[in-house]
């Protein structure tokens, strides 16, 4: 087995606090005589690892890390090193498919797009119009593709029904950033690892999800003056094993834990009263809410030891430069937005934001999740604009030269779970799915299959392979992928990379941008002057149009060009490594992206409600009490299921299963059990067990691990024996992110 499969994080290069992370050049090439090296970045996680693509005889034959890039300094994730082989897979889609006689058959682009446009025009010209259209995208398209699609949907069709699988992975990141700081946009920087003296990882198995960032943390930990580390995770992950303090929390109790830690910080005098008084709103309410969360009370709720909670609070409260990272263990769990805001609260009351080593990274799970939020490919308006602010709507209407009433803003944008509900109910009759596989990734898969099978729902799937979802489609459009098209994407710390086209796509496959632009031309969308609404013909033209849209907004790209990006990644806004270093936040009522929500109910606050708070560019502290999960273990289903990732795969293995090294490392699903639970059940390592929830059943082999007793873990990547046969249709009231981490299940030995 390859050494980077056996050791996913590679050789250590230790360094000390405040020093530059040393270079380590990773490379995997399968052919001699490379003809060209083409700049790009990773598309198989959110870290944004810069790399060069090796090309020979018109094919990709390998990759190498770019040593001069700020993100990875030459290092690559195992998925980066091997995942590119999927591009060359023999089962790539090379021609469009249409459904005839109940079967998908090959056809030409004219026929396929003709069917898509004919159904679109039939719906737009009939009663209900825009209300019948739904677009469900990905976190893997390029910025230019999201922006073009956003204009098509919001100004061409005028539909609010646009979202993507980013709702499943990092909607809570966006919601928490908006709630605390006024707009989306990551406050921290990966460079904070170089300067911090403490790292707290909140539900973030960074060793599997952003392995190069984990390498950076490990290198600091092996150098002089290493940062202390706290891990909050019910599993004994590599992160938990490395941490100085591991809180193996009961799933669904994150809010209680964060409240208790903040209480200890306040009661111990570890907060910054000067910063708090000058730069935040809501300290008194926060202190009052958390006061009941004593260590013993939190220990009872979370299934922890009170002394461990006190030790964790001391680590958080006495550090001079604290870096926090947050991911799915918080985002996909009970009270997700409230818990993520709790981490923001901790940093705000300590003044740990906007300084080297002191910051928050509300992480993304996908390589271009940041871009769909920026550019409006999901429900958000482009440029982090506020759908409820008439002036923001006027700005977009003027930019796109359309009537303000065309742009949907009469209600909140439709989130993904509601889009699927509308499709289930029959009001959405046209569903275009791009670069994602919801027949494996959404909760309660039996329900999703029923929706996709509805004869009255016209389904378009745009992808590289005939996925589990594509098998339900009426039209399948073969798409080009990374390395086969030109465009930009932005990682979790606001670093923009340019991905150059290295090779031609296979057969008749087209870039997602070309497909969207073709659709716009065929639909003949027009602006108020009768000119084409979508006039662009190249990625760079779309990028320049996007820059105008972003100008003056938090995600301002105006200082970035394709030419500048050819020298390496650039953060937005240009020259700004960290946000909010001056203590002023994006909470001005005329500038903010949201007027806020009730974190318990999700109810929207009005502009008048918001203005009455007189934010004065101060950040918000949000405090709520812990509430139990909507589904908890009981007599019939006595254990809690949490789902997640393995380091060797990305999402539904559409690409990584086609890389031999990655697939061999994790070819099949499994369940992780604590040895005590296994002994009680009479289960040994490798035994087949059935896992049953109120929604379905899977059968998988058991692995005995350090997962918390009473909790089991199943990776979500696999289409067969899929973890999401078990998960529930429920979501956070604010972010609308599904609750994948708290299903009640029963585990039994299987003969």
From TrEMBL:
Gene3D superfamilies membership: 2.40.40.20, 3.40.50.740, ADC-like domains, Dimethylsulfoxide Reductase, domain 2
Protein's GO biological process: nitrate assimilation
UniProt xrefs under Pfam families: Molybdopterin (PF00384), Molydop_binding (PF01568)
Keyword Glycoprotein on entry: no
Cofactor: [4Fe-4S] cluster; Mo-bis(molybdopterin guanine dinucleotide)
S-adenosyl-L-methionine as UniProt keyword: no
Xref: InterPro entries: Asp_de-COase-like_dom_sf, CT_Nitrate-R-NapA-like, MoPterin_dinucl-bd_dom, Mopterin_OxRdtase, Mopterin_OxRdtase_4Fe-4S_dom, Mopterin_OxRdtase_prok_CS, Prok_molybdopt-oxidoreductase
Keywords of this entry: 4Fe-4S, Iron, Iron-sulfur, Metal-binding, Molybdenum, Nitrate assimilation, Oxidoreductase
SMART domains registered for this protein in UniProt: Molybdop_Fe4S4
Alphabetized CDD domains for the sequence: MopB_CT_Nitrate-R-NapA-like, MopB_Nitrate-R-NapA-like
Domain 4Fe-4S Mo/W bis-MGD-type: 35-91
Molecular function via GO: 4 iron, 4 sulfur cluster binding; metal ion binding; molybdopterin cofactor binding; oxidoreductase activity
Assigned protein family: Belongs to the prokaryotic molybdopterin-containing oxidoreductase family. NasA/NapA/NarB subfamily.
UniProt protein name: Anaerobic selenocysteine-containing dehydrogenase
Phylogenetic placement of the source organism: Bacteria, Bacillati, Actinomycetota, Actinomycetes, Micromonosporales
